[in-house]
Specification:
Layout: H1 9-17, H2 23-38, H3 43-52, H4 55-161, H5 165-179, H6 186-252, H7 267-280, H8 282-299, H9 309-320, H10 324-342, H11 351-375, H12 382-406, H13 410-428, H14 435-443, H15 445-466, E1 473-474, H16 477-483, E2 500-501, H17 507-526, H18 535-560, H19 565-593, H20 597-602, H21 610-632, H22 651-670, H23 673-696, H24 705-724, H25 738-742, H26 745-755, H27 765-771, H28 777-786, H29 807-822
Antiparallel strand pairs: 1-2
Length: 823
Amino acid sequence: MRRRVAPDSSAMVAGGGGGAATEAELQEQVQLFSAISNGEDLGPFVRRVFASGRPESLLSSLRHFSRSKELEIEDVCKAHYQDFIRAVDDLRSLLSDVDSLKSALADSNAALQSAAGPLLASLDAYLEARSVAANLSAAHDAARLCARLFALLARANEHLAADHLYLALRAVAAAERDLLPSAPHPTIRRMLIRLIPAIRAHAERKISKEFSDWMVQIRVASRHLGQIAIGRASAARQREEELRARQRQAEEQGLLRSGSAASTPTLRDQTYSLRVEEDDDWAGDDADDLAAAASAAASDGGAPCLDLTPLYRAYHIHKTLGLEERFRRYYFENRKLQLTSDFQVSSLTPFLESHQTFFAQIAGFFIVEDRILRTGGGLIARPDVDALWEIAVSKMVSVLEDQFSRMQTANHLLLIKDYVSLLGVTLHRYRYAVDPLLDVLSKHRDKYHDLLLSDCRRQVSEAVAADKFEQMLMKKEYEYSMNVLSFQIQTSDITPAFPYVAPFSSSVPDLCRISRSFIEDSVSFMSHGGHLDIYPIVKKYLERLLGEVVDGSILRLIESGGLGVSQAMQVAANMAVLERACDFLFRHAAQLSGIPLRIAEKGRREFPLKKSRDATGQLLLGLLKKKIDDFMMLTDSISWLADSPPPSGNEYSNEVIIYLETLVSTAQQILPIQVLRRVLQGVLSHISDKIMGLFLSDVVKRFNSNAVMGIDIDLKMFESFAENQSHLYSDSDDYSANELKLALLEARQLINLLLSNNPESFLNAVIRERSYNKLDHKKVVTITEKFRESSDRLFGTFGTRGAKQNPKQKSLDALIKRLRDAS
């Protein structure tokens, strides 16, 4: 293609405008021609010439431009004419070649058509046959697919009829997966789309109903399982307590030596190791609990049996349906609601009667949950079980707090505590945290013991009130074993002859039995409650029982003032026996608590009945003093200015000696020697005080040496009595019969002073310290002022007025004067 050559604008302007054109017009023509050559819009040029009123110039310029283009075209045609002619010639020659080629092609086509006609007919027949074969194959495949589909559906119907839901769902799933996409007919496809969800919905409804029935049955089975598991824990505890009882019996019989105590494991060690073994073999215990429940169900046709198959079947079916997570939530929520309903405590039935069923239901619930956790294939997770357990613990703690706050009987509280502790032992084997339950039991420990102390206070008061405080008679050996040996209060290992009169009254074994029962109840409450060392706690409450209840009851008896001398003596004898009984009670508490006796001996305190023992001694001594005071009233018959001393002492002394000898012979049979010593010493000291009181009393205005010699005879009788009691000190190296005589020392020193030939020697400090150290100089002044020698009568005869004064009386007068000056 030839390139277009732009016209020479200056030439066209020069040729068209001539010399008449101005420079401006030339410039406008150049711009116009340039715009036309470039194909630009000529509107501005037209508006400008019309605006200036000279359109002729524009038309002249356009004509000039047209003529110049025509000339240019002409020049171009002239330049290319030869080439065009040659091209036309080439086309003419080519046309003849094309005609010859067309003829050849027509001939070839005719030949091909005549040769390919039969082949095309054969090809059409082949294509038709292949189409028929494809249709037959498709029909065969469709028939085979239908046969397989109907076989699966028939199998699914059989499984549904046989209640084999899982197999039916598998058949339906296979049909949906393999056959539904390639269903041969839309009708069959629509049928499958409608029936497959219906079959799944039917399976879901049926398995949900079975699961609902299982939820109803599992409550009864769980309660039965809980009762069996707690019963097995109770049997294990009973075996353990029997083992402890045998060991205590062996210790009491002396079969366990202190030398082997270090190498022999203590009961606490045995208990602890037993618990460790249970913890290590907790899965086996689960199997044992289930086996025991199954055995009980087999032996009792009406007992429910734990069967988790419906649950696992329902879980498996839901998993097959793709509803695994929904079933998990559904199971958890239903079990949670079931647990909540188990917490309902009937207000119509006392909790004491329903507590076993209540706790057995909860125990069985969590045993089942533990089993499902370990064998359910992920049906429930550990956090879910822990959440349920926290809810259960919180509710059980609330129920226990409420019920314990209402109970006013220690035995009822103990029964519930025992069952709760068994529940804790049972569920502890399944790794449940039971510490909150044990904390509740520990929290109400004080209330239980307060109730127990209240019961014991009533029993002790009744036992003390029923006692006549007479020596207890035992006719048979079993009575001796029951009342003496069982509390280790015997004084000899030799069995006495029967009938046997005990040195104590009937209240002593009664108090021992009450105290022993208190210890056993206290240990029973404290045991299996999470405390490893319960002896200090049991000891504290035992000391409260002895110090507050028993001691208080005996003190009230003493303060009532209704006891005579023989009864007070019997109470004092009882206190000595109770002191040995208290040692036994503390040892018994230590044995039941599972600690060695040597450890219990280290922490032994003083006698807890010390107040009542001291009060009993004071009462007995006071009664004896009162009796002595009655005899001392006979001193009114003493002649203080007698002409001669009584040959066998005064009447009161004989009566007192007879009474004291009778008292000693009786007291020796029941009173301990040390108590009898204290009593006799107090009585003789009181006699000494009464003799001193006689000389100091206002009734005695004057007395002479004959009266003093009579009192001296009385004192010698009392001192002889004291010496005759030397057998009471045969077992003591620190005391002797002189101890009793020392109780009469003040009266003896006074009599010695009054009978002395030189009473003025009392003023000598050495002699006074050696011979008159018990005498008070004020009393000596008062008494010596009343003393007159027998020859120095108040109204003597005229023959004796001028006689020389008695030297002894002179010495007494000097003594009196010196003592007055000193005071």
